Amino acid sequence: MAGSGSERAAVELCKGINGLDxxxxxxxxxxxxxxxxxxxxxxxxxxxxxxxLENKERFTEQGDALTFESEVDKVYLGAPTKIAxxxxxxxxxxxxxxxxxxxxxxxxxxxxxxxxxxDFGDDEYMHMLCVEAAAAEKPITLKPGEExxxxxxxxxxxxxxxxxxxxxxxxxQSS
Length: 175
Known about the structure:
Number of helices: 3
GO cellular component, one term: cytoplasm
Radius of gyration: 16 Å
Strand content: 35-45%
GO molecular function: carbohydrate binding; glucose-6-phosphate 1-epimerase activity
Oligomer: single chain
Number of strands: 11
Largest sheet: 7 strands, antiparallel
Shape: globular
CATH architecture: Distorted Sandwich
Strand order of the largest sheet: 1-2-10-9-6-4-5
Protein name: APOSPORY-ASSOCIATED PROTEIN C-RELATED
Number of domains: 1
Helix content: under 10%
Pfam families: Aldose_epim (PF01263)
Structural class: mainly beta
């Protein structure tokens, strides 16, 4: 996200399809997609995922970290309790902590799908990334009177990862 130091990414709390809260990071308008997508998601490497773009076919993640160059809609199964979202341009890291929700969804509609969505601007895909906790593989079903607790926490940590001073694995391992 290029621009002046006064710009801030908006953290938007929305309701997901399952009725649970999800967090969407949106960059300030006028940001460049080329710069914005110097964002990586770490903590989901080598996990199995269901690819919603491939009829929920199951695959295993192969990369060092998730990077974005096209539409993505994946459900990571058995995701860790901490996931790091590294924004190289702004030199900051968002840490998502979750409890009671075993999976994680990573979603961005990219350009073609964004243009078909009535509640989504044509270029908004360049300024957002959705990472949310979920119970997708084994949905949580409650009987009358039963209780369930889940938690999702998002922290922003200033970092100098771009200069190599922040080890993302330490962010994932810290409390």
